[in-house]
Write a structure and sequence with these properties.
Blueprint (H helix, E strand, L loop, with lengths): L1 E2 L12 H10 L15 H33 L2 E2 L10 E7 L8 E2 L2 E2 H14 L6 E6 L9 E2 L1 H10 L9 H15 L4 E7 L19 E5 L8 E8 L11 E9 L4 E8 L2 E9 L3 E6 L5 E9 L9 E8 L5 E3 L4 H12 L12 E5 L12 E5 L7 H10 L4 E4 L19 H4 L9 E4 L5 E6 L5 E7 L5 E5 L16 H9 L11 E2 L5 E2 L6 E3 L5 E3 L5 E2 L6 E7 L2 E8 L13 H5 L6 E5 L5 H4 L10 H39 L7
Parallel strand pairs: 3-6, 3-8, 8-9, 9-32, 17-18, 18-19, 19-24, 25-31
Antiparallel strand pairs: 1-2, 4-5, 6-7, 10-11, 11-14, 12-13, 12-15, 15-16, 20-21, 22-23, 23-24, 26-29, 27-28, 27-30, 30-31
């Protein structure tokens, strides 16, 4: 015999109540005010045995009724002998997402889930049919099979780097059972670590006869992971120049963790940072081309999110063109060219420094435009017409009033912002937005007005606007330590394309360039591909190099989704209410799994006889109690009549 709801057996503890009441009432008898009490002693002795027997019988009836009600509430069933049972169609959803690799008590969560799945398959009969759905690998087909074939697939299952969508898995399982059960009893078994992020999205209503059994879990262990890796602050590094790598760390706790940066298979930088903050590591100078690597932190319970891959294109030093007459700008560009940070000769310009936006209409989309405002406000109308023609949603307006201005202090000031905060600005223009656009205020003044703005021109190509002319009459910038780093930013980082290479989540399709003919996979395997097609083999984390012959065209990194780092779990109540209107049973104790599954073939339920017997006892109990009260009344009346008929003793 087993119980569908064994927890309700705790109701049997209520049987203690009538026992306690019985013991308390043993010492309390009815008080009868009667002058000749000695004539009642005989009647009491005659009825005492009957009263005790009646009270004991009532006690047994009440205790038995409460015990039977507890048994009925626990829904007992009788198992059939041998292996005979109703044939069942079972869809086993095995959550092998990244979080299932969490180690608890020296064992992975997935190992526990696989053990429960094998228990299900060990109890299978010859007529049962199974489907195994790996929720962490939704790209895999779910094929029907017998217990032996399905058990082999369960043993082969390993954690993936992907996230799971259990709502989609349940919908898929219900569809498989609807078409493939062929009259068998239908059941969906969900073996998961109960990670909250996996239970996203609504679940379509299930048929009434579909049972759902979910493995519940305890409290999640603490975890930390790498949330993001950003090279060069989002701007492409320049060949031969150092840059930085910002590593954001998230998770539970506030411990400081070690962070390591690896390129070409060796560690090139290291640091540390508390959880919830970012570590900034030095990125050494690299040659032009694709640079790939990874960042990792100290290991914890979930190793899969402790490493994150990246791929970045290192650009050659930009070709900068400037035809103006400002000697301060020419001198700064010469210094940068001697240091190898820019080139002043070569092919077409990558960056053009344009006084009053002259010639901006003729620039190709591949050339970034840096607009230098004029010294005289009389040139502003012509400047604004050129900006409007280039579809730049900003215009210059003369400033009202007089006085000096300062650059607003910025958090984490660098080699540019620190000296800029000390300069004095005597002359500047007001940058006013004239339309919608995607842009960024790079530097603001102390009153919040934009001083440097970066965006994209309507026809393509970047633009940078300054509100102050770079001459001695307008500010102290040309003669300050801020001049060289400012020109460096204008010609380099602010005018460079973003460093972001294509990224993908595990299993996500990536559209390849038209000229691609092969991929170099993370394990070093070369796989032929068709250019312009969508590549769907991104199952493993790592860097995928896109090749055309022997040349690397580009590269993209595949990393686990950030949601997998949050191990927060749903409790049993949330799991039971997850699917509206469905009969969901949760199992928190792994030892109870085998006794809970196959709910359609557990044998005949026997709770009804217990409930009927309890009802019968509850009906008999008041009848026996009432007969006792009637007997007591009759005995008391007879005693009274006897005492009244007796002659009083003679008195002297």
């Amino acid at each position: 015999m087993g119980f569908l709801v064994p927890a309700l057996l705790a109701l049997a503890a209520a049987a203690v109540v009538p026992i306690v009441l019985h013991l308390l009432q043993r010492h309390q008898g009815p008080r009868v005010v009667f002058p000749a009490l000695r004539y009642l002693r005989r009647a009491e002795k005659e009825s005492a045995r009957q009263i005790r027997l009646r009270q004991l019988l009532l006690l047994l009836l009440r205790v038995a009724a409460l015990l039977l009600l507890a048994l009925a509430a626990a829904q007992p069933f009788i198992r059939g002998a041998g292996a005979s049972h109703e044939p069942s169609a079972v869809a086993i959803i095995l959550d092998n997402s990244l979080s299932s690799g969490t180690v608890s008590n020296d064992r992975r969560v997935l190992d526990d889930l696989k053990a429960r799945a094998l228990e299900t398959l060990e109890r299978a009969g010859p007529d049962d049919r199974f489907w195994l759905l790996r929720a962490g690998a939704p790209w895999e087909p779910a094929l029907p099979g017998d217990a032996e074939t399905t058990a082999a697939r369960v043993r082969e299952t390993e954690p993936t780097a992907a996230a799971s969508d259990l709502a989609a898995a349940v919908t898929h399982a219900a569809a498989l059972l609807a078409t493939g059960a062929e009259g068998r009893a239908r059941e969906i078994q969900i073996l998961s670590d109960a990670q909250a992020s996996a239970f996203r999205g609504p679940v379509e209503a299930l048929d009434d006869d579909v049972e759902v059994v979910i493995r519940a879990q305890g409290e999640a262990p603490p975890n930390r992971g790498i949330a993001s890796v950003e090279v060069g602050g989002g701007l492409a590094p320049v060949a031969g120049q150092r840059s930085t790598v910002a590593v954001a760390i998230e998770g539970s706790g506030s411990d400081t963790v070690g962070v390591r940066l690896s390129v070409d298979g060796r560690v090139i930088a290291a640091g540390s940072a508390p959880v919830g903050s970012s570590a900034v590591l030095h990125f050494p100078a690299r040659p032009a081309g694709i640079t790939a690597g990874h960042v990792e932190i100290d290991a914890d319970a979930l190793r899969g999110d402790d490493r994150r891959y990246f791929a970045v294109r290192v650009e050659p030093p930009p070709v900068v063109r400037y035809t103006g007459t400002n000697e301060f700008i020419h001198d700064a560009l010469d210094v940068l060219a001697e240091a190898g940070r820019i080139r002043r000769d070569g092919g077409s310009a990558d960056v053009a420094l344009l006084p009053s936006a002259a010639g901006i209409d003729a620039l190709p989309a591949s050339t970034a435009a840096v607009v230098l405002p004029p010294e005289s406000p009389l040139e502003l109308p012509a400047l604004n017409r050129r900006l409007a023609s280039a579809q730049i949603p900003w215009r210059y307006e003369p400033r009202s009033g007089s006085g000096e201005a300062r650059i607003a202090p910025a958090e984490g000031a660098d080699d540019l912002m620190r000296p800029l905060e000390r300069v004095r600005i005597q002359s500047w223009y007001s940058l006013q937005r004239s339309g919608a656009g995607t842009d960024t205020v790079l530097i603001a003044m102390a009153d919040g007005a934009p001083w440097a703005v970066r965006g994209t021109r309507g026809g393509g190509g970047l633009y940078v606007l300054l509100s102050t002319p770079l001459d001695e009459a307008a500010s102290t910038i040309p003669t300050s330590p801020a001049m060289l780093p400012l020109v460096d930013r204008l010609a380099g980082a602010w005018s460079a394309a973003t460093s972001a290479a294509p990224t993908a989540a595990p299993g996500e399709a990536v559209v390849l360039p038209a000229e691609a003919d092969a991929l170099l996979l993370p394990d070093g395997t070369r796989e032929p591909v068709t250019g312009g097609s969508a590549y769907r083999g991104t199952n493993e984390p790592g860097v995928y190099h896109v090749l055309a012959g022997t040349d690397t065209i580009t590269a993209f990194a595949v990393n686990p989704p950030r949601v997998e780092s949050d191990l927060t779990r749903l409790d049993e109540g949330e799991l039971r209410g997850w699917i509206d209107g469905a009969a969901v049973t949760t199992v928190s104790d792994p030892d109870d799994w085998a006794d809970t599954v196959f709910r359609h073939r557990l044998g005949a339920e026997s709770w009804r006889p217990f409930a009927l017997l309890a009802l019968l006892l509850l009906l008999v109990e008041p009848l026996i109690a009432a007969s006792g009260r009637v007997g007591n009344a009759r005995g008391t009346g007879a005693a009274r009549r006897t005492s009244m008929n007796r002659p009083s003793p003679a008195s002297d």
